[in-house]
Design goal:
Elements: H1 4-25, H2 35-56, H3 60-71, H4 75-78, H5 83-107, H6 109-119, H7 134-151, H8 155-172, H9 180-186, H10 193-197, H11 204-207, H12 217-222, H13 232-235, H14 252-257
Amino acid sequence: MENEPLIRLACFFGILVLMGLWEAIAPRRQPRQSKAKRWFSNLGIVVLNTLILRAVFPLAAVGVAAIASEQGWGLFNVLSLSPGPAIILSFLALDFIIYLQHVMFHALPTLWRLHKVHHADLDFDVTTGLRFHPLEIILSMGIKIIAIVLLGAPVLAVILFEIVLNGTAMFNHGNVKVPQTLDRLLRAVVVTPDMHRVHHSVIPSETNSNFGFNLPWWDYLLGTYQAQPAASHDGMTIGLTEYQKTPQVQQLHWMLLLPFWKV
C-alpha cells in the first residue's frame, strides 16, 4: 500500500503514452479539432480533479479499504471470506456499481448536466476517457467509498480495480484501429474502443447504450448493448447535438461552467 500512489501514477502515464503513440500510428478517425488544445484542457481537468480529490477524500478508496479491513466492516469481512474469492467478488461488484452509476448519470437530469462534460467532447481519443467534471468525480468517489465499506472489499482488490478501470477507460476511449476479428474476441472480456465509441454518438439511443467502462458483461445482460453505430464508425458524429457548433468545448473553463448553463 505504501507504493500504491507511485504504481498507479506509473500505470497511468505508461498507458497514456502507449495509447497516444498508437493513436498517432494507427488512428481510427481523423480529428475534428486541434489535438494540442484538446489535450491541454482534457489533461488539465485531470490535474484539477486529482488535487480536489486529495483535498476532499485524503484517504481515497484504498485508504478506506484499509480502515474497513482493520475494523472488520463490510459483508466480506463479516463472512470472513478468504482473500481470493473476496478479491474477485469485490472487483466484479465494484465494476457493476460503476456501470449502474454510469446509467444513473445518464438517467437523472441533474447528474446528466455534470456528465455532459464528458460527452461534449467533439473528438474521441484517450484523453476523452479522463475528461470529467470535478463534481462528478467527487460523487463517483463517494459512491465508490460507500460500496467499498459495505462490501468490505480487500485493499488489493481496490488497488487492482482502480488501476484496471483507469487503464481500460483510456484504452476504450482510444482513437485506434483494432482489427475486427480481434475486436470481436476482446469484446468477450473487455470494452473495446469500437464498442464504447458508439456510446459517444450524437444519436440518443446510441448515447444511452454501452455503459460499461471495463467489463462488457453488464451491457449484454441488461440489454444496453449496441454492437455498431448506425452511421458506421467513420460516418458517425461524436459529441452532443447542441454543442456541434460550439468551439469552446475544448476550453477548460467552459467544461467547468457547462453544468450551470442552460442550453
